[in-house]
Design a protein that fits this description.
The radius of gyration is 23 Å and the shape is globular. The protein has eight helices and 19 strands. By secondary structure, the chain is of the alpha+beta class. It is 22% helix and 26% strand.
């Protein structure tokens, strides 16, 4: 097993972004361990039989609402020979049927149909003691809070509210306040970098005051803006909060300033709130654009980023138009997020050359405390403190 640098979490070894053994351990202890992974918005599976295909870590799963109104999460793998039975990204169905041998399952994962189970003309068939009740789909534990659905492989995982903690719940409930949600659209991208680089990126206000010239130019995110970084007691979750400042004088202007015209809709002065919830979710509020960013690892050197943009069911047409207009800031070709995709590729290329080296994370000190400014990497250090504990590094 790899050994962490003696300096602690102010040093991040490059092998955490490249080592296949570390990656396999992450899948086992993080994504299949006692954690709650985001899988969907309840609005995506609003009616009986509605389903969406997604992943927990690298494991493909299906989120589906059954006839009783319960949301189930099942592994997208037939219990017979392991084929992925669900091929559509979303839809509505009354059952799941594997295309290989047509084993058929209910929406809560029970096996109810096995072709030629009793054989034919006295030939073949399953053994007499074959029991369909013992061969259902693998199911995950499910929790929902205010229209957001989480799942866990660990049946003994702590309740979701305890998992998030009081500080994170307050920020979570600020966006998810019980109002019905409305999905506005999706964006998908594959980034050629380790999934943790994306998590670090959102926990890192230091870079946002420098890399994102668009944010700085128009006062959306600057080092002199009132801001803070807050963490839960474990350090695994965090939230980055900022208040819009002034546009730089004598700089660029927009032909259509409506792109950046915010409408106040939440309590408090914050105009940017980025919440990172271990292990796979970023809840984004940038002015009035709201989105879930779900990270899906694709080996140690790549990950998929799934963006789900949403609003509220009672939004006016004007508010929906504002949210969609501001969504141009985000996504694979967003005015802001395109910067992150490029710089994370450069980061992966750099760390992969010599994995014996390590990065420095000392901005704001070496502690893992909250901060009332942007010039800190404390949330990154706190993340790796928890990461080390979970992986035993």
């Amino acid at each position: 097993m790899r050994t962490w640098p003696e300096e602690g979490v102010s040093r991040i070894p490059y092998w955490v972004y490249t080592d296949p053994d570390v990656y396999r351990l992450e899948q086992e202890r993080i994504f299949q361990g006692p954690s709650w992974s985001y899988v969907a918005l309840a609005a995506e599976v609003a009616g009986a039989g509605d389903f969406v295909r997604t992943s927990v870590g690298e494991t493909p799963v299906v989120v589906v609402r059954d006839k009783q109104g319960e949301i189930n999460v099942v592994v997208n793998r037939c219990a017979h020979r392991g084929a992925m039975f669900c091929r559509e990204p979303y839809g509505t169905t009354t059952r799941f049927e594997c295309p290989y041998h047509q084993w058929t399952y209910t929406l809560d994962g029970r096996l109810v149909g096995v072709p030629f189970e009793k054989g034919r003309d006295g030939q073949g068939g399953m053994p007499d003691d074959f029991d369909v009740a013992c061969h259902g789909l693998q199911t995950l534990r499910v929790a929902e809070r205010h229209g957001v659905v989480f799942a866990s492989f660990d049946a003994s995982v702590e309740p979701l509210e305890d998992y998030l903690g009081e500080e994170m719940l307050n920020w979570f409930d600020r966006v998810f306040d019980g109002r019905e949600l409305r999905v506005l659209g999706y964006l998908r991208q594959r980034l050629p970098c380790n999934w943790k680089l994306m998590f670090e990126n959102i926990k890192d206000p230091y870079h946002a005051t420098l890399l994102h010239v668009f944010l700085v130019q128009f006062g959306l995110f600057r080092a002199d803006n009132p801001s803070s970084t807050k963490m839960d007691d474990t350090g695994r979750h965090s939230v980055l909060v900022s208040q819009r400042g002034k546009t730089l004088e004598g700089g660029l202007t927009l032909h259509d300033p409506n792109l950046l015209t915010p409408v106040k809709e939440f309590d408090g002065p914050a105009t940017v709130v980025m919440q990172t919830l271990w292990p796979n979710l970023i809840v984004q509020q940038q002015s009035n654009t709201l989105a879930m960013r779900q990270m899906v690892p694709r080996g140690p050197l790549a990950h998929d980023l799934h963006w789900t943009f949403f609003g509220y069911a009672d939004d006016t047409e004007e508010m929906t138009a504002i949210r969609l207009r501001q969504a141009n800031l985000m996504g694979p070709a967003g005015f802001v997020s395109i910067d992150d995709g490029e710089v994370m590729r450069l980061s992966q290329d750099g760390v992969s050359v010599d994995v014996s080296r390590r990065g420095v994370a000392e901005m704001g000190g070496r502690d893992t405390e909250d901060a009332d400014h942007m010039l800190t990497e404390g949330a990154i250090r706190a993340f790796y403190e928890h990461y080390r504990e979970v992986l035993g590094l």
